[in-house]
Amino acid sequence: MFFTNLFQSNLKSQFIIKKIEYYPATESTMSDLWELINKDNSHVLVITDNQKNGKGRLNNKWHSKPGCSLTCSFSLNKVFLNEQFNLHAILIPVAIIRAIKKLLNLEIKVKWPNDLFYENKKVGGILIESKNKQQVLNIGIGLNVNEDNNDFPNEIKNKTTSLKIIKGHPIQREPLLAFIINEIEQKIKSLDSKKLINIWQENCIHINENICFKYQNKMISGIFKKINLKGQAVIEYENKHITYDGPIDFI
Ligand code: BTN
Predict the structure, then answer these.
(1) How far apart are CA 211 and CA 220, in angstroms?
(2) What pairing do the DSSP bridges indicate for beta strands 218-227 and 210-215?
(3) Is 142 in the pocket of ligand 1 (CB under 6 A)?
(4) Does this model's pTM top 0.85?
(5) d(CA 206, CA 223)
(6) 21 by DSSP, 3-state: which?
(7) 81 sits in which H/E element
(8) Mutate which of 21, 22, 71, 139 to test ligand 1's pocket (most atoms within 8 Å of Cβ)?
(9) What pLDDT was estimated at residue 140?
(10) What is the percent of the chain with per-residue pLDDT over 70, rounded to a whole number?
């Protein structure tokens, strides 16, 4: 069970989270958040112990194990100025990486756009949905925390891991989530795009590596160079630098 009191006692948030909606079970915290936002509930964090129909990026399903995974959603409304807008996709994974480093002394890495990796295995993902010309920005975080290898479905078993598997002991989800929210808030308060981009790049597992991406309706390969100041990926392809927002694959 996720203990909201323990979460709150570690939380320093002043503006992201003002209310917590804990559901023992639900279909998707992302759908719940949209419902709450549409009813004018802002600054709410939705968290569940049992997400039964989790949504991943690109219409994938997101698997989570009751009582073991961290599955939550919250909204960042009118936080970023227009020109800073794309930076949210950089800021969230950077804040999660920093929070995990502070709490667990563990180096988690990022794969474009915002998959969280440990060595060559995925440990978490971030889903970002927006509407109203991006005034409403809903963030869903899914982290594998206390799963064992047998808890993952066969099709992802070999490419997925959890913080418990990495550290060799169970991890309390409540302080972990509080550290993540605190770090996100702190990074928003002292927003420094160059610094954020540098941290993202330093922690990226494929800088200057060959990757696959979809360009003009074809899958092609190029070299992932960097993130530009607008928060887009810059990929080298046929001696040109292409800016790119979509997903990539390893070769
Ligand atoms: C990805 O595909 O990598 C992103 C996964 C995001 C999953 C989280 S879990 C909490 C929130 N609710 C959902 O239904 N999805 C997101």
Answers:
(1) 8
(2) antiparallel
(3) yes
(4) yes
(5) 9
(6) strand
(7) none
(8) 71
(9) 98
(10) 98
Q: Is the pLDDT of residue 134 over 70?
A: no
pLDDT at 124 (0 to 100): 98
Place of tokens 């919250």: 74
63 pocket-lining for ligand 1 (C-beta < 6 Å): no
Residues 6+ apart with CB under 8 A from 175: 6, 7, 10, 103
Given a contact cutoff of 8 angstroms between Cβ atoms, the answer to whether 98 and 166 are in contact is: no
Quick count: other Cβ atoms within 10 Å of Cβ 189? 9
Q: Which atom of ligand 1 is nearest to the CA of 30?
A: 12
Q: How many angstroms separate the CA atoms of 137 and 169, rounded?
A: 34
Q: E strands of 38-176, at which residues? A: 44-48, 54-55, 61-62, 70-77, 109-111, 115-118, 121-131, 136-143
Q: What is the C-alpha to C-alpha distance for residues 28 and 46, in angstroms, rounded to an integer?
A: 9
> Would you place residue 133 in the very low, low, confident or very high pLDDT band (cuts 50, 70, 90)?
low
Q: Which residue matches tokens 């709150």? A: 8
Give me the pLDDT at residue 105, please: 98
Could you give the CA distance from residue 209 to residue 224 in angstroms, rounded to a whole number? 6
140: nearest Cα among 15, 24, 26: 26
Task: Indicate if ligand 1 lies below 6 Å from the C-beta of 125.
Answer: yes
Strand order in the sheet with 136-143: 19-23, 44-48, 70-77, 136-143, 121-131, 115-118, 109-111
For 33-65, how does the pLDDT look when each residue is reduced to its tens digit (9 = 90+)? 999 998 888 899 999 999 999 999 999 999 999
Average pLDDT over residues 135-157: 95
